[in-house]
Structures are given as structure tokens and as C-alpha cells.
Design brief:
Strand content: 15-25%
Number of helices: 14
Shape: globular
Distance between the termini: 22 Å
Structural class: alpha/beta
Order of helices and strands: EEEHHEEHEHHEEEHHHHHHEHEHHE
Number of strands: 12
CATH class of the largest domain: Alpha Beta
């Protein structure tokens, strides 16, 4: 079955679209990527989404206009990726604007901005969306959801295999080995902490809005890393919290950046912008390395997401994850920007097949669930 997957992540830089074909067993499907595209958000829309994701107060009319704008870009990406309308089904994640994990005595909630029925009508095909709600209703984090699809799409190896997504937030998947005493261990996964959120915000701040990201990590490459500050940050509550856990801009947004830059200024009063970017970039790598040391040691780390293009971040990962082979997921046939869109195409196919898409060992939900809400074209 041909399925179109649409994904827009925490970085809010645009929509990734993948047209894929799935056949065979839902648990271990045969799959092939047929096409993929990226459709960036207009700069003004991206700014509004980032502000909304950090708690900006908006009137109801503005929220509706924002949902319309997001839906319009999703539609453009879908049409660019599948101009021949080959897909029989579409899976769309929508744009997360707020995520609150479960708290004491309170279920979690997560808001992915999208006009689902409208998009289904415009595409003229069934659409699966709102993928996180069922897991949240069962007491889960609602995130990350990609570890389940990683386990289905990628073959196991002789040892543990780690997959790292470097989007706005860094998240990990750990796949158990194919053989040996640990082969029956559950797939693991969690949100590590910030990846591009803080770095991108710092780039915008220091460039006066002229730049939105540190291309290939070139700006950070010229700075000093303040290791003492990184060690202090690693002791913060979120980084000491065991999985299951998930997070977003609500925790690692502009207010968090300003706090960290103030602490950097106290330790290094004469610091340059490059020093701040170098320290924030190294911090992302240090958080991932710390998390990997707490679990079963993997043989390799496969890297995807926009941060996979940041050469400085990859150097920091290799330096801090000593003894671990670090390489791009693209070497296995899934480009950095394809992984999550492919995942939501698979989750939509699983919804069609009534196959559970969540892993309680990852999200903490009471049981697995078929994910997503179906909208049909009239």
C-alpha cells in the first residue's frame, strides 16, 4: 500500500514529506521510499509557531489562522511529494505547539496544530492525524513515537543499536540485539533534551535575526566550550530523570536560553557569540552521551534529523561517545529528513491495519494502542 507521511517537528522549520510503499507483516514490513520533499515554512510563519510553542498568548482568531497556515503548507508538501496521487492514505503529524507530559495525578496532553478534516478533503484521501492522543489517554507520554517504527523498519544487529534524532529536541531509540540473552529486551526510547532549539534561538539572537541556524556548525566551531557549565547543566532535574520522559520548547525555549546565557556570562564575562554556540552545541552532545552511559552499551549510533548536518555537533558526539561508532542513518537508505515522515507514514498504515503503534516500555502507557484519528474526504 502506498502511504504519504507528513512531519513537522519541534524546530518548526517546515514539512518533510515521504511517499512510501508498505507490504507484508505489520511487525516487519517490506518497505520502499518512492519520493520525498521538504517544504520550508515561510519565515513569518516559523516565527509565529516558535513564539506559540514558547507560550505566547494568542486570541482565538490568531490560533485559527495559524492552524490554517500550517495546514496549507502540509497540503503543498503533500502535492509536491505525490503529484500523481499515488498514495491511498496520508499520515500527518501536524505541528506541535504545546506538550505537557503526565504529572502527579494528571494525564499528559499534547497539541499538534492541524485542520485534519480540511486537509483530508483537500487531498481527497483518508487522513490519519492526532497520533499522540490515544497513548496520552492511557497514561503515556505520547512521545517519542518513532522508536516503534524504528524497530519495524530497521534490522537488528549482533548488539544494541542506537538511533539519535537531532531535531529541535534530541531523542534516542535503543534496539535490542538480534541474538543472545538480551534479544527479548524491549525497545527503549526517550527525549534526551535540547538539540537545535537552544542553538537556533541563540543564532537568531546573536545575528539580530539575520540567521536562523548555525549552518554546518561553522559559527560554533570557532568558539570555546565551557565544560564546567556543561557539567553543571547535566545535573538539572530533567537530565537526571529516568525514562519514560518527553519534552519540548515548553522547557527548552527562549526563557531557558536566557538563563543559560546569563550563567555563561557569570563564568565567562568576555565571551563571544561563538563561545555560547560552542557550549550549547557541546551541551547537546553531552546530554546524549550521558544518557547512553546509563543504558545498555550500543555498538553504533545512527544519526538523523537536521542536526545530522552540523559537523561541529557530530564531532562533539564522537568525542564524548568514545568507543562508539557514530554514522549517519543515510548510510542505511533513510536520509536525515526522511526518518520521521517515513515513521508517520508507517503509523498511518498501522492504523489502517489496526496494528498498535505505541510501545509502553517507551511511553509508559498502560498498554499498546492503535494510534491516530481518521478523517475521510466527503
Amino acid at each position: 500500500m502506498k502511504v504519504l507521511g507528513l512531519m513537522s517537528g519541534t524546530s518548526a522549520d517546515g514539512v518533510d514529506a515521504v511517499l512510501a510503499d508498505f507490504r507484508g507483516s505489520p511487525a516487519r514490513p517490506r518497505w520502499r521510499i518512492l519520493a520525498s520533499v521538504q517544504r520550508p515554512y515561510p519565515a513569518e510563519l516559523r516565527s509565529r509557531l516558535i513564539a506559540a510553542g514558547q507560550g505566547a498568548a494568542l486570541p482565538a482568531a490568531a490560533w485559527l489562522e495559524l492552524a490554517e497556515a500550517v495546514t496549507a503548507v502540509q497540503l503543498e508538501a503533500a502535492r509536491l511529494c505525490d503529484p500523481g496521487r499515488a498514495a491511498a492514505l496520508v499520515g500527518c503529524h501536524g505541528q506541535t505547539v504545546w506538550h505537557r507530559p503526565p504529572q502527579q495525578g494528571c494525564l499528559g496532553v499534547s497539541w499538534q496544530l492541524l485542520l485534519g478534516p480540511q486537509l483530508a478533503q483537500q487531498l481527497g484521501r483518508p487522513l490519519i492525524y492526532d497520533f499522540r492522543a490515544a497513548d496520552l489517554a492511557l497514561g503515556g507520554q505520547g512521545a517519542p513515537l518513532v522508536p516503534a517504527t524504528d524497530a519495524a523498519l530497521l534490522r537488528m544487529e549482533g548488539g544494541w543499536r542506537a538511533l539519535l534524532n537531532l531535531g529541535g529536541i534530541a531523542n534516542l531509540t535503543l534496539l535490542p540485539p538480534m541474538r543472545g540473552p538480551e534479544r527479548r529486551q524491549p525497545v527503549r526510547g526517550w527525549d534526551c533534551g535540547p538539540a537545535n532549539t537552544l542553538v537556533d534561538l541563540a543564532v537568531q539572537r546573536y545575528s539580530g535575526g539575520e540567521r536562523s541556524f548555525d549552518a554546518e556548525g561553522g559559527w560554533a566551531a570557532g568558539g570555546r566550550v565551557v565544560e564546567a557549565l556543561i557539567e553543571r547543566w547535566l545535573q538539572e532535574d530533567y537530565f537526571q530523570q529516568p525514562a519514560p520522559k518527553s519534552t519540548g520548547r515548553e522547557l527548552f525555549g527562549l526563557a531557558d536560553l536566557e538563563r543559560r546565557l546569563a550563567q555563561l556570562g557569570e563564568l565567562l564575562p568576555d565571551h563571544a557569540a561563538a563561545d555560547a554556540l560552542a557550549t550549547l552545541t557541546a551541551f547537546t552532545a553531552a546530554v546524549v552521551a550521558q544518557d547512553l552511559r546509563r543504558g545498555p552499551p550500543p555498538l553504533e549510533l545512527l544519526v538523523a534529523g537536521g542536526g545530522a548536518r552540523n559537523a561541529t555537533l557530530l564531532r562533539e558526539l564522537r568525542r564524548r561517545c568514545r568507543g562508539l561508532r557514530v554514522r549517519p542513518l543515510a548510510e542505511l537508505g533513510i536520509e536525515a529528513e526522511q526518518r520521521e515522515a517515513l515513521a508517520f507514514a508507517l503509523l498511518a498504515w498501522w492504523h489502517q491495519r489496526r496494528h498498535p503503534g505505541s510501545l509502553p516500555a517507551v511511553t509508559g502507557a498502560a498498554r499498546p494502542a492503535v494510534l491516530g484519528v481518521r478523517a475521510r474526504a466527503a
